[in-house]
């Protein structure tokens, strides 16, 4: 039997038995729907991590040298955590030595962060992400200002009490007002606002617009780093390929300052955007494994339903099979007919599941913005192929049983 003739017969049977066909494909539909939804969420998060997270939160082509790693792949044992706590702190003297070792013109910036309460005469107090920074911080983070200016290197060295804020801080503390030139207190210390950063959006629900950035030597540093140490030094490479070379320079400098022997491990951390992406890849892998469990159950249930319904169909259509055999249909023709019918049912269920899965992923990302959805084109082809495979496997036994029916005995069936 030609393949397309078998498909036409299968579609005619499905059209006649709409309700039975719907319940037949329901398991596959649900399984594929969850599969596509999980893949879409994971793909969207991957795109978000690579395009937005690494660039906005960390910085493009950057790495940070710090006392402890910013991101850690895998679980951290208590012994390892304690060893991190025993590491020497970083100070400005370390920064000066590192900067002198780096190639001339390499952008770098000290960064210290803490969440602190801010107040103004125009609004109730609220927590902001207070950052004490110097050097090329605005360049590294690619912060563009919509109003005012960034603080100068001289202001950074003098510790001037000036502040550059995010749009959310500006809108909350200075509603319908120009914040530039006005005063904002952080932990009770007044600062003059000199600039407003353009809207940055959010990362996984965490707002990037609650910033309040002051020079590192300003009083804010006593809040971010009360022990006069620093959180870390951000270094920016000219390209991704140069990151490893600059990391080698920093590693050699820090090991020399800490007088580490060749056999001793680093007692500092070098964290890059690649480290963050590796950390996310592990989370993504666990999400994929966990998320695939429900679709797998749905597909197993769907295959069992298809097999049982097809067995019922064989019993109901015994006389039809006998007539076809009496008219010259071969065993393989009968087997092809039922296999194609099972596969067609399963593919239709998969197609419906794909549509519902994409819609579900989109609705989920609207309800929870920190779960962005993205379409992975390969997943659509994979889901259709999976549906066809499930249909063929599930229909194999019923099709074989139908093909072995004796035409004379089949024609006797009422």
Automatic annotation (TrEMBL):
Pfam families: FtsX (PF02687), MacB_PCD (PF12704). Keywords: Cell membrane, Membrane, Transmembrane, Transmembrane helix. It is a multi-pass membrane protein. Its main location: membrane. GO terms for molecular function: transmembrane transporter activity. It is found in: Cell membrane. GO terms for cellular component: plasma membrane. PANTHER family: ABC TRANSPORTER PERMEASE YTRF, MEMBRANE COMPONENT OF TRANSPORTER-RELATED. This is MacB-like periplasmic core domain protein.
């Amino acid at each position: 039997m030609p393949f397309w003739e078998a498909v036409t017969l299968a579609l005619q049977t499905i059209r006649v038995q709409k309700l039975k066909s719907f319940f037949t494909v329901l398991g596959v539909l649900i399984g594929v729907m969850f599969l596509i939804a999980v893949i879409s969420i994971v793909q969207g998060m991957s795109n978000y991590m690579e395009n937005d997270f690494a660039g906005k939160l960390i910085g493009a082509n950057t790495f940070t040298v710090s006392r402890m790693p910013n991101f850690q792949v895998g679980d951290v044992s208590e012994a390892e955590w304690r060893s991190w706590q025993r590491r020497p702190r970083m100070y400005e003297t370390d920064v000066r030595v590192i900067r002198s070792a780096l190639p001339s013109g390499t952008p770098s910036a000290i960064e210290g962060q803490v969440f602190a309460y801010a107040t103004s005469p125009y609004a109730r107090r609220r927590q902001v992400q207070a950052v004490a920074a110097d050097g090329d911080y605005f360049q590294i983070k690619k912060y563009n200002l919509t109003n005012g200016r960034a603080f100068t290197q001289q202001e950074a060295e003098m510790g001037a009490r000036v502040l550059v804020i995010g749009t959310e801080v500006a809108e909350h503390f200075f509603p319908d007002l120009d914040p530039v030139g006005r005063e904002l207190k952080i932990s009770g210390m007044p600062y003059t606002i000199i600039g407003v950063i353009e809207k940055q959006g959010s990362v996984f629900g965490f707002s990037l617009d609650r910033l309040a950035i002051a020079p590192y030597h300003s009083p804010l540093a006593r809040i971010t780093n009360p022990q006069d140490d620093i959180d870390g030094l951000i270094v920016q490479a000219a390209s991704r390929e140069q990151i490893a070379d600059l990391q080698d320079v920093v590693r050699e400098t820090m090991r020399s300052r800490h007088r580490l022997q060749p056999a001793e491990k680093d007692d500092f951390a070098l964290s890059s955007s690649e480290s963050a992406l590796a950390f996310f890849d592990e989370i993504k892998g666990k999400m994929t494994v966990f998320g695939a469990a429900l679709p797998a159950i749905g597909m197993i249930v769907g295959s069992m339903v298809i097999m049982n319904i097809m067995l019922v169909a064989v019993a109901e259509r015994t006389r039809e099979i006998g007539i076809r055999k009496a008219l010259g249909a071969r065993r393989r023709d009968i087997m092809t007919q039922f296999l194609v019918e099972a596969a067609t049912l399963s593919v239709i269920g998969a197609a419906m599941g794909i549509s519902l899965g994409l819609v579900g992923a989109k609705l989920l990302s609207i309800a929870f913005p920190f779960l962005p959805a993205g379409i992975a084109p390969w997943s659509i082809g994979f889901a259709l192929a999976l549906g066809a495979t499930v249909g063929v496997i599930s229909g194999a036994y019923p099709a074989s049983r139908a093909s072995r029916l004796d035409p004379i005995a089949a024609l006797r069936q009422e």
